[in-house]
Amino acid sequence: MIETSTFRAGRAIVGALVGVVAQALVLGAAFLAGRLVKPQGGGFEDLVAVLSTLVVGEVVVALACLILGIVQIVRGKRDLGASLIAGWLVGGVVGFLVIQAG
Description:
The chain has about 100 residues and is mainly α. It has one domain. Helix content is about 80%, strand content about 0%. The protein has helices at about 10-35, 45-75, 80-100.
């Protein structure tokens, strides 16, 4: 039988920060990819670099946060698992708003 642990605010904060920081790293990597790649011959290589980095990074972060969050919830660390998933969702919403504003 799985024991449930008590809610710990420290673990919840760490989980939320990991989710948000993971999203920020993906956005930063996409921005960096756009700055490093220079279009040649009138192409859209810089845009392709940004979008491919963003899509691949988001898929990796989404899978990692969801899998790790669900595993932690199943293990009884609901505060860490739920906050990791919530942090990922909040980071995604903030990232979307940043992209829309830019």
